[in-house]
Amino acid sequence: MTDTEWLRLNRQICFSLHAASRAFNSVYRLILKDLGLTYPQYLVMLVLWEHGDLPVKKLGEQLRLDSGTLSPLVKRLEGAGLVRRERSAQDERSVRVHLTEEGTALRERALEVPPRIMSATGLDLAEVVDLHARLERLTTALDAAAEAEARAAG
Amino acid sequence: MTDTEWLRLNRQICFSLHAASRAFNSVYRLILKDLGLTYPQYLVMLVLWEHGDLPVKKLGEQLRLDSGTLSPLVKRLEGAGLVRRERSAQDERSVRVHLTEEGTALRERALEVPPRIMSATGLDLAEVVDLHARLERLTTALDAAAEAEARAAG
DNA sequence: GCCCATTTAGTTGTGTGCAACTCAGTTGTG
DNA sequence: CACAACTGAGTTGCACACAACTAAATGGGC
Asked: From CA B109, how far away is CA B124, in angstroms rounded?
């Protein structure tokens, strides 16, 4: 393969993931507009609906986001009346994110989102599950590579 | 499937694409640090190395980015001395982005990026090409769905 | 008990990504 | 020619994402 072909292939591959992610985001933006949520805010709500109240730290682990992203995001959710933040009594460093009544109630309306998203992908359940598995493996490999790079650089 | 399972699966799928995209970004950030480029800036440079000078409009079509993103990004590339912007004489609305000598020279150093990225994915060429095809189809379907949503809403 | 490394949130600054807007230049129509 | 519609860049405002930092609280070693 020539240099030109390598660069071209590289662009296609890496761009396709970037583009797919943004396309997903666009569809979510449209579907979530009614709920008044952005896509990352919706992810936070999904985690809370699934696990119940969590400290910011645990939210970050679930979503691979640090406090620099989560702090203002959760503040916006609090501003919207969907969650409440409370310092833990046991550990004053920790802030627990609680669902409000309104936040809990929003789950009912959010149930219509998954089928609409599934339909938008044009994929059937098996294909989606397969893609999910591939992307998980890819992410794991990329994380390991980033770790190796960071070690090599540091 | 129960509501809970649906929401959970939905979170996993959509999150996996988001996470993979961010993991890719992290690896690029480390590898591109030496070149002084961000990942989107690198994508712009790849397009310019491949197609030669282009108006901002065409760059946007290649990368699916609008002027709101591209204008400041190209300005930063200009600030770094990699490109030059020139108003078209034929159509005064159009701004053509030219590679500078420095921008052209950077391509040589950028040739080491694709093999490092390939290695970071932990995938072989066939798997990467297959993933690319799946993601392209997914993006096409999502774009069509977004179009349909927008029509329904508007 | 005291000091220090660690942990948890939060803040600041930079760079996208996108909607909504402005402005200048171009084109189609009567 | 005049005028309205359109087009290409750019600007503004908002919301992530992340690096680098600060501040407060905790826990371990002495």
From this structure: 23
Closest to A104 (Cα-Cα) out of A49, A36, A44: A49
Residue B95's φ and ψ, nearest 5 degrees, are -115, 120
The tokens describing A99, both together, are 């669902």
* Alpha carbons A145 and A137: distance in angstroms, whole number: 12
Burial class (CB in 10 A: 0-12, 13-18, 19+), A52: exposed
The pLDDT of residue A1: 77
Tokens standing for residue B97: 């982005």
Number of H helices, E strands in chain A: 7, 3
Residues 77-136 of A with CB under 8 A from B: 107, 110-111, 113-115, 117-123, 128-129, 131-132, 134-136
B20-37 pLDDT, tens digit each: 999 999 999 999 999 999
Report the alpha-carbon distance of residue A127 to residue A120 in Å, rounded.
13
* Structure tokens, B42: 């690198």
Residue A151 has pLDDT above 80, yes or no: no
Comparing CA positions, the residue from B100, B97, B103, B99 lying closest to residue B57 is B97
Asked if B94 and B55 touch (Cβ cutoff 8 Å), the reply is yes
Helices B3-32 and B113-121 pack at an angle, to 10 degrees, of 150
- Take residue B89 and report the two structure tokens written for it: 């004489």
3-state secondary structure of A150: helix
Least trusted range by pLDDT, from A2-11, A22-31, B39-48 = A2-11
pLDDT at B3 over 60: yes
The separation, in Å, between residue A69 CA and nucleotide C12 C1' comes to 12
**B83, A41 contact by CB (below 8 A):** no
The shortest C-alpha distance from A55 to chain B (Å) reads: 19
